[in-house]
Amino acid sequence: MVDSKIIYENLDTEDQILYFEKNDKGIKETFINARIIYSSEETWHDYEGCLSIPGLSQKVERPWKITIEYLDRDFMMQNKTFSGLTARIIQHEYDHTLGILYTDHLKPLTKKMMESKLKKISHGNITVKYPMKFL
Prior knowledge:
Layout (H helix, E strand, L loop, with lengths): L1 E2 L1 H6 L2 H7 L8 E2 L2 E8 L3 E8 L2 E11 L1 E7 L5 E7 H14 L10 H15 L13
Antiparallel strand pairs: 1-2, 3-6, 4-5, 6-7
């Protein structure tokens, strides 16, 4: 499930123009058995965070535009192209289905600099406003 519509609605006009292409107001969509079939050569860096790693964010490079094939909530096959922040969110969530976190896209030095904070989180030394289970 991806909801970039709520993000679009909460951005000021300047950021809407920066993160979304003209006439794109975001989406609220379910992706079942998704498969990214195209990624643009044009990329951009922006901060990403994750509920799985609370309190941390880093700049991640991702393609600006992707085409994804998937079943929607009515199990109808879709093949759509998304760009900007919507494409970034889809890629982030798609990565989760492959067992990948945004930290896996970071340079080794950046990961090393985050190591102590990640250890604290993995030991439950973090306060969040949502339930978390530490294994």
